[in-house]
Amino acid sequence: MEIFKKMEEHDYEQLVFCQDKNSGLKAIICIHDTTLGPALGGTRMWNYETEEEAIEDAIRLGRGMTYKNAAAGLNLGGGKTVIIGDPLKDKNEEMFRAFGRFIQGLNGRYITAEDVGTTVADMDMIHEETDFVTGISPAFGSSGNPSPVTAYGAYIGMKAAAMEAYGDDSLEGKTVAVQGVGNVAYPLCEYLHKEGAKLIVTDINKEAVQRAVDAFGATAVEPGEIYSQDADIFAPCAMGAIINDETIPQLKVKVVAGSANNQLKEERHGDELEARGIVYAPDFVINSGGVINVADELYGYNNERAMKRVETIYDSITRIFEIAKRDGIPSYIAAERMAEERIERVRNSRSQFLRSGHGHDILSRR
Ligand SMILES: NC(=O)C1=CN([C@@H]2O[C@H](COP(=O)(O)OP(=O)(O)OC[C@H]3O[C@@H](n4cnc5c(N)ncnc54)[C@H](O)[C@@H]3O)[C@@H](O)[C@H]2O)C=CC1
Ligand SMILES: CC(C)CC(=O)C(=O)O
Questions:
Q1: Do domains 3-63+78-133 and 146-287+318-339 have the same CATH topology?
Q2: Cβ atoms within 10 A of the Cβ of 43, count?
Q3: Res 45: pLDDT
Q4: How far is CA 332 from CA 268, 321, 351, in A?
Q5: Does domain 3-63+78-133 have CATH number 3.40.50.10860?
Q6: How far is the CA of 288 from the centre of ligand 2 (A)?
Q7: What is the DSSP letter of 40?
Q8: Which residues are catalytic?
Q9: pLDDT band for position 352 (50/70/90)?
Q10: Is the pLDDT of residue 357 over 70?
């Protein structure tokens, strides 16, 4: 893999490879863009088959965070970490402490949080070594697990997408096919069930499926069957790249709205959804509840303030559909433009000299 060529492609600022033989830590921190502020994004632990796959995931997810944070109006850049390993077998305290020290070494350029495979307890261990971590235990005055808040944002965003598709944002009586019933999707199913939606669920973890069947009367299907269900809405809440050449022709839904990051395998798959008249709620907007919540910790966590901000996801999704219609473009492009324009405006305003007080500028030589 030609790493610098990869980095140039979407102008990534920094890739940091962290290795600690003692604990088995192998982590890749991707800092994509810090125009708006320090890069904030979670740490994913996953059993990647190859190092190339891990690098690809880190950079794709890191860039997604730049867009997510910009679109959410946060003063934060985008980044992400992947740790190579099995989250069920390979975790230990030394690993997260070693990782915390690497984050500390970046001196605030990168701030972490949870993602797939990591928990509040893991963040607490990182916190032993650095303050540049969010989503730590509420006992520290922090916001804790971001997943239920991500779920709430995804629920609100799904309602905005339903409004676009059906002219009514009620989900009562709608059938929602949910892929993956993990930390985000389970509370999402709770909201949907409460509103009277019918649920079809799948997961590679049979216990997770059973929990949803027992709690919400959901219908269980095999993982490969979820795309072709007779449903109104498809909610991808597992891994990325699931909107692709194989799955799109199977979809019977009118709406794709879920929490997974990087849902479109390639951008052209967003065009394909549009061509088929499927309303797509852009992933990095509909799933921004968690990052909005953890980012609030940087101001001294206030749950009420954070939840108010999460509720704006409805308006953001609605605005994206309006821009898409106005400009005749698919919703994923409208969302990207919204984020890129904000980054560009801030970048331009920074062209004016302001002494930072750090480093060696010409005025400190006197
Ligand atoms: N947790 C959060 O606050 C946020 C999560 N996200 C994204 O939402 C998605 C879900 O995140 P979490 O719920 O935290 O993760 P999780 O790991 O708790 O849940 C994911 C679930 O998907 C299942 N799964 C994996 N591959 C599957 C497949 N091929 N078919 C069916 N099920 C499969 C897993 O067994 C697991 O139960 C991820 O893409 C994550 O990056 C995005 C923003 C914030
Ligand atoms: C889990 C969030 C707190 C941050 C993140 O990495 C994301 O939104 O994907």
A1: yes
A2: 25
A3: 98
A4: 10, 9, 29
A5: yes
A6: 7
A7: E
A8: 80
A9: confident
A10: no
The CA distance from 190 to 351, in Å, is 48
> What is the residue with the minimal CA distance to atom 40 of ligand 1?
260
Give the pLDDT confidence of 35-50 residue by residue, as tens digits. Answer: 999 999 999 999 999 9
Confirm whether pTM is higher than 0.90: yes
147-166 helix and 303-311 helix, angle to the nearest 10 degrees? 20
> What lines the ligand 1 site, CB under 6 Å?
114-116, 146-147, 150, 179-185, 202-205, 208, 223, 237-239, 259-261, 287, 290
Is residue 180 lining ligand 2, measured as CB closer than 6 Å? Answer: no
For residue 69, give the ligand nearest its CA: 2
- What confidence category does residue 366 fall into, taking pLDDT thresholds of 50, 70 and 90? low
H runs (alpha helix) in 235-330: 267-275, 283-286, 289-295, 303-311, 313-327
Q: Do the beta carbons of residue 346 and residue 36 sit within 8 Å?
A: yes
**Distant-in-sequence, close-in-space partners of 107: CB < 8 Å, separation ≥ 6:** none
Q: How far is the CA of 69 from the centre of ligand 2 (A)?
A: 10
List the structure tokens of 68: 């997510």
Tokens of 46: 């996953």
CATH number of 146-287+318-339: 3.40.50.720
